[in-house]
Design goal:
The chain has about 325 residues and is mainly alpha-helical. The chain has one domain. About 80% of the residues lie in helices and about 0% in strands. The chain is built from 14 helices and no strands. Helix 5 crosses helix 14 and helix 6 packs parallel to helix 14. It is globular and about 55 Å long. The N terminus is likely disordered.
């Protein structure tokens, strides 16, 4: 597997400072989007019931670019020069992990989907913890710290739709695992109680440390995923919260790697868009092919590929976080 090898950059302070401005913008925009979603659900729930599929597709399309620059992250994070040989190594490692995950999903779908849900929860939760630390100017904690907070964030996003909206999530999981089976009501109740306990424990910890903004964000996420139809909730979350916040980190990272450039943030945003364009176009093409086919076997293979791409993305972000925590 490719590692973030290289000479490294002394950009710890620069990266932290650069992360705050786009991070605060992304923080405010993503929170406003979820607040608006929650208000619409409370005042006019029928609107979201109709709009949920469109919000899910729109959020997926909007969120695609945040993983489309994974091939550049090792170089932006360490300052290593992106030679043809090193880029080939990074891409080969990325595709190898994706291929292994796709094969596992096809050969052992139940186990693969279970691992996928757990990994996704850890990825979402850890992403919120790291983002908040960089936004607020605190050192990025190692994975062994703020564990309850990361688990609370991640299980709210992944666990609540499964536990509280089983009429929607159950058929999807049954199709992915090719079993058609749904979780028993008792298991769903246990899952909902476990998520609630994690939220209460993490919330109490945030209150003790007077991290009120993070406490409000956790409460907002829990309310949205408990009350809003899951397709609408996840679409807006993925496109504007998770992807938006990660994008702000990537733009700040690219800018900090070239601190001598004038208007570094604007230049970094254009550089991000340039590198994301081609992979995003390929992913959109795959999604269009999925939507256009009626062949169940083709759908299964293509969905496996899309889900499998999550695993190398998670690996890339985890290594980025490790670099950030080591500064």
């Amino acid at each position: 597997m490719a590692t973030f090898a290289g000479p490294g950059l002394a950009v710890g302070a620069a990266a932290a400072a650069a992360a705050r401005r786009p991070g605060r913008i992304a923080s405010a925009a993503s929170a406003a989007a979820l607040v608006a979603l929650l208000v619409v659900q409370l005042l006019a729930p029928g609107v979201l019931a109709v709009a949920a599929p469109a919000l899910a597709v729109g959020g997926l399309l909007l969120g695609l670019p945040h993983g489309a620059v994974d091939h550049m992250v090792p170089f932006w994070a360490t300052g290593e020069r992106a030679t043809t040989r090193r880029m080939a190594q990074v891409l080969a490692s990325y595709l190898l992990v994706a291929a292994a995950a796709a094969a596992a999903l096809l050969v052992a779908p139940v186990a693969a989907v279970a691992v996928f849900l757990v990994v996704s929860a850890l990825h979402f939760g850890r992403g919120d913890v790291v983002f908040a630390a960089e936004r607020d100017g605190r050192p990025v904690p190692p994975p062994t710290r703020d564990v309850a907070l990361a688990l609370a964030h991640g299980t709210v996003v992944v666990g609540l739709p499964v536990a509280l909206w089983s009429e929607v999530s159950g058929p999807v999981l049954g199709e992915l695992t090719r079993t058609g089976a749904a979780l028993p009501p008792g298991a769903l109740t246990v899952l909902a109680l476990a998520v609630a306990a994690l939220v209460l424990v993490a919330g109490a910890g945030l209150a003790r440390r007077r991290r009120w903004l993070e406490l409000g964000e956790l409460a907002l996420l829990a309310a949205v995923f408990a009350l809003v139809p899951p397709l609408a909730a996840f679409g807006v979350y993925f496109g504007l919260w998770h992807a938006g916040r990660h994008t702000s980190r990537l733009v700040a990272l690219a800018a900090a790697a070239h601190p001598g450039r004038p208007a570094a943030l604007g230049w970094a945003a254009r550089r991000y868009a340039l590198h994301a364009a081609a992979p995003t176009a390929v992913a959109v093409g795959v999604l269009a092919l999925v939507a256009a086919t009626d062949d169940a076997s083709v759908l299964a293979v293509e969905l496996a590929v899309l889900i499998a791409l999550t695993f190398p993305h998670v690996q890339t972000v985890a290594r980025l976080d490790a670099v950030a925590a080591g500064r």
